[in-house]
Design brief:
CATH architecture of the largest domain: 3-Layer(aba) Sandwich
Number of domains: 3
Number of helices: 13
CATH class of the largest domain: Alpha Beta
Oligomer: single chain
Helix content: 25-40%
CATH topology of the largest domain: Rossmann fold
Structural class: alpha/beta
Strand content: 15-25%
Mean pLDDT: 91
Largest sheet: 7 strands, parallel
Length: 549
């Protein structure tokens, strides 16, 4: 056999092997039923190709030309009556048909942004201002890395309408309690606290329902990406309400209830109570000083001791609270964050300030979220520091949900330290704001995207040029770990192939937000030889060689 013939045979064998290897993987993703895209060979024409498909009865029905997609590239969209059941054999048969160079399903594309699909999302400028679309790449709330269900407690003068379609799914329920049976079933000292607690009534009766409490709940945790209304900062989080707190005694009693549930959770290792990580209070007492409310102010340190950070709204009057007073925003506590108001243009509006007392700003004026008009649930604007504070409470809960065990590993064993760690991250990652400079502690506005970036660094998450940095051990007898870097966190394709280019493994992965980026491959069943591992997205591909011994 001469060398040309030998080379031709080898190339033919390689071509067949590559085709077999590529076709051995099932098609993934959604597609439009009854559509197949084809590319013809250089000498083929579409009419005879379709006639041949129909003669062979490939699909059990008639193929027809739906559209010429790219005539210069000989690409066409064919339609056919798709039978019930697995249609993979149809695609394979089309690929094998004379005159067809390539064929694929008409895949449905998927959006890869991080904006929710809620219908009113375009009105939520507050969420964009604090970087939530970027933050949602890392998570959307709900659970800690250890599986704790994250809860935010909201104290309000009146009750929220928790049957709002964007709130009902995130409503906290005490499943260890039997509703309205007059018994303290979970032995936490509170009778019938099924949906929360109302100190005035000694039950979970929400009292008067109003828009203020409803909107505050929505900012923290309106269900997101559910094709309904708006999105809260946490698409999934549990909202526990303490309502009808018109006087200081009811405030202190409400805080004590919250602290009790978290203390029980800590001490029982999650078997009792609730994993409450934050509270929000969007009301207070104007022109009052901490010396006049020592019991109220002391509650924040008590909450902090069990791991709860409290977000509070300052006055809506443009006063220095250190001179004119305000409760609770002037209370001194390492476990409290006092919040003032910026508008959607990121400028401070009429609201309290204080270089030692008010920690940061957050979007308040112009916030768009859920509403309740007394009869109907809906959507609209809600403003003031009442809207600014729940953005911070929501941020606290959101950080706990990130997949960073380093951040929350001691949440139950050293809750105070863990709570302060989260608080410090929020304060240390603000976006500098000239309108807040010198009149707030941080001189900046809440920036959740920057907080997430800080957490990513804390947990050794990284971004950088696409690369495969190491393969260990290499050579290998069985499992091998590939360490890689990516410039982002969108899906990438990893492949393992042999020296002939035959694909042994192909898989789509999403790089982790936190921790080391690595991929483990079991080479136990591979023959001895040289292989290649690659990772890529689009035209950007990086690879490394490894040896199976």
């Amino acid at each position: 056999m001469n060398m040309k013939l030998l080379l031709s045979c080898c190339l033919l064998l390689l071509s067949v092997n590559l085709l077999t290897a590529q076709q051995s993987f099932p098609e993934k993703g959604n597609r439009r039923a009854g559509d197949i895209m084809v590319q013809l060979g250089a000498d083929a024409a579409i009419a005879p190709v379709i006639a041949e498909l129909n003669r062979r009865n490939v699909a059990g029905g008639s193929f027809f030309l739906k559209k010429t997609l790219a005539p210069d590239w000989r690409m066409y969209l064919l339609g056919f009556e798709e039978p019930a059941g697995n249609a993979e054999h149809i695609l394979e048969a089309v690929r094998m048909s004379a005159g067809i160079a390539a064929a694929q399903w008409n895949h449905l594309t998927e959006s890869r942004n991080v904006e929710p699909n809620d219908t009113q999302w375009p009105n939520q400028f507050d969420m964009t201002l604090i970087g939530m679309p970027e933050a949602w790449i890392a998570g959307t709330g709900g659970l800690t890395p250890n599986g704790d269900t994250i809860v935010v407690a909201i104290l309000e003068k009146e009750g929220p309408f928790m049957k709002h379609p964007d709130l009902i799914g995130n409503r906290w329920v005490n499943y260890r309690e039997i509703e309205d049976d007059g018994i303290d079933n979970d032995n936490n000292g509170y009778v019938d606290d099924y949906y929360g607690w109302t100190p005035r009534y000694g039950s979970d009766d929400p009292g008067v329902i109003d828009n203020h409490a409803t909107a505050v709940n929505g900012i923290i945790g309106a269900q997101g990406n559910n094709i309904t209304g708006v999105s809260g900062m946490n698409w999934n989080v549990k909202l526990l309400n303490i309502q009808e707190t018109d006087v200081s005694s009811e405030v202190v009693e409400g805080y004590a209830y919250v602290a009790k549930l978290r203390q029980m959770y800590n001490e029982s290792n999650g078997q009792e109570g609730a994993f409450i990580v934050a509270t929000n209070m969007s009301f207070g007492v104007d022109s009052a000083f901490p010396a006049q409310a020592p019991l109220w102010c002391a509650a924040y340190d008590e909450l902090g001791a069990v791991g709860i950070i409290s977000a509070v709204a300052t006055s809506n009057d443009p006063v220095n609270v250190e001179i004119f007073g305000d409760i609770p925003s002037a209370c001194p506590s390492d476990y409290m964050i006092a919040v003032t108001n910026v508008d959607i243009a990121d400028k401070k509006v009429a609201s309290g300030f204080g270089a030692e007392s008010i920690d940061l700003g957050a979007p308040g004026q112009g916030t768009y979220n859920v509403t309740w008009d007394g009869q109907n649930s809906g959507y609209g604007t809600f403003g003031g520091t009442s809207a600014a504070s729940p953005h911070v409470a929501g941020a606290i809960a959101f950080l706990y949900s990130l997949g960073c065990e380093t951040l929350t590993v001691d949440a139950l064993t050293a809750p105070a330290s863990c709570g302060k760690r989260v608080r410090d991250i929020i304060l240390n990652t603000v976006s500098p704001n000239p309108t807040l400079d010198s009149i707030t502690v941080t001189g900046g506005r809440l920036d959740v995207a920057q907080a997430v970036s800080f957490v990513r660094d804390l947990c050794q998450g990284s971004i950088g040029p696409l690369a495969v940095s190491a393969a260990l051990p290499n050579p290998t007898e069985n499992k091998i770990r590939f360490f890689y870097e990516t410039p982002g966190f969108l899906p990438y394709t990893v492949r393992v192939s042999n020296v002939l280019g035959q694909i042994i493994l192909e898989e789509t992965i999403t790089p982790p937000q936190f921790g080391v980026k690595e991929y483990e491959f079991d080479a136990t069943n591979l023959p001895r030889g040289v292989y290649f591992f690659s990772i890529g997205r689009g035209k950007a591909v990086r690879s490394t060689k490894f040896i199976k011994k």
